[in-house]
Amino acid sequence: xKKMVKNRYVLALIACxxxxxxxxxxxxxxxDEKKAxxxxxxxxxxxxxxNVGEPNDKAVREWGRLMKEKSNGKVxxxxxxxxxxxxxxxxxxxxxxxxxxxxxxxxxxxMDYVPEFGVTYLPYIFDNKEQLYKLVDSDLFKDLSKKLETxxxxxxxxxxxxxxxxxxxxxxxxxxxxxxxxxxxxxxIKLSNEMMNSMGAVATPMPLAEAYPGLMQxxxxxxxxxxxxxxxxxxxxxxxxxxxxxxxxNLSTWIAGKKFIDKLPPEVVQQLxxxxxxxxxxxxxxxxxxxxxxxxxxxxxxxxxxxxxRNAFKEAMKDxxxxxxxxxPELMDKVYSIIKQ
Length: 341
Description:
The protein is of the alpha/beta class. Helices cover 49% and strands 20% of the residues. It has 13 helices and nine strands. Strands 1, 2, 3, 4, 5, 6, 7, 8 and 9 form a nine-stranded mixed beta sheet that branches. Helix 2 (55-70) packs antiparallel against helix 11. The relative contact order is 0.15.
């Protein structure tokens, strides 16, 4: 009997030792898995609509270079310019299901998810990029970003100026009245449609790629976009008047899916923000250089550059936010107080 008890005691002791060994081995395995995950290279697809060689494309590649350097080679960008991954809407849907993609967006598009986001896209509200940067740094913008997260989207960074948007047309324009009857191509965004109509023209939404043939065939009389984009799209071949309306200082917001961001190490997310903003400063210089070069090339092609009466346009558009329930007076008051500090 004593021998049986002793044997049971020995068996129990052996079982405990084996169990403890397995637990320790399991703990070691989890540590090894975490270490392997931490050491694994992170590949991020960067999706945008600009063509290779445009200022935005150059800045995106600078962002990738900075990120690779900052992460010691751990993070690698794969570039998908010219809407290779699909339309902005298609790509955004990919983000919401956790794709390893970061894409460019703006307030006009993000209105579909958080209506108040459109304040960053309003015409004749912001006179310069510094005012927009003040808004990005504000609690108001942080609150809007948090609302966007409830829709499955995450703001990676926003201090990125796509460019000042201007107008090219088949007729000269110096004041809002001169736009009457002119069909102007705009992106298929509600705010852009209302903006151009309110400026005095006939808003004509269509893909940017269709603007050139539209001009040449007389379907439209003009288009609006940053100057390098207008030049890159060869709009000057069908329209010989470039109006420096600067109706929008176009802030871009780079977004990712919340599910994807939550899987990344916190230090990588922080690095994406820091290097993204640094690349934004690179973009500012590229835009300035490209604006000057594009204007000179268009002049050489016979384009007349016109300084419009911007105050007249601002006056005509002063009540524009009131057309939208998304921009109540209390919201606009906050925006004005932030940008005029």
